[in-house]
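Q: Hi! Curious about what Glycosyltransferase family 32 protein looks like structurally. Here's the sequence.
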Amino acid sequence: MTMVPRVFHFIFGLKEQTEPFHLAHYLCLESCRRLNRPDAIWFHYANEPYGPLWERIKPHLSLRPVVREALPAAAYGDSEEGRRIAAEGWSYAHEADFIRLRVLHEHGGVYADIDTLFVAPLPDHLYGYDCVLGDEGALPDERGILRPSLCNALIMATPGSAFVERWLDGSRDAFDGRWTSHSCQLASRLWEAHPELVHVVPRQYFYRHPWTPAGMRNLFERLDPDTRDVFSLHLCSHLWWDAGRTDFTAFHAGLLTEEYVRAGATTYAMLARPYLP
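A: Let's find out. The predicted structure is below.
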């Protein structure tokens, strides 16, 4: 029986690095290292991070220069959403969508976004499935109809996983410059067509706090002590990283400091505190 390798994959630095490696990213890697005790952590990058926190975590990583993915630029002009992604310079996130599938198909392992915080070790039995994804709750499709959505922020897969292979093969045709047509939406359609190829876990496992204003406030401004069946949290950092963006929360990356985490007064701070440097 093929098992999911206990190798964790992270992708970072697809754009030039102009600030030191952030505490949130350090805590992602350190919580992964200490809780999951992986055989290896592969850090896939184009531009290497720098700074004291990077130098602290770097010895625990296997550095893997990334093979870049060229995306069809014309696709971004077909929708308002795509045009904004291109204008804001966010297309590197799409590139990471393709890279993670290629890496998992070739090597297998556990992929997680760098804005993850691990809360408990991933259950041993999940490593026995060909592919594992988490439900993130129903989302409206292009017609406004609510449909199940499988998030790609954490993926477990065996090398050559049949589900990942179908997903990777279909991604280029599905890519239309929008956020999730080729990723979460395609994964959900594949699940409906081939449920035997993927094991789907409840939202609580990886996505307890959804990407809504209430979800972000519950993470960074309030304290939710209920961690039953929570193994990791996805921070959705693109929604709050910049101080100028306040439509989801007034919290921003500049406020995520060691002092904030050490105080332990919010959900994220309480759960991240054990992994401070």
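A: A fun detail: The two ends are 39 Å apart (CA to CA).
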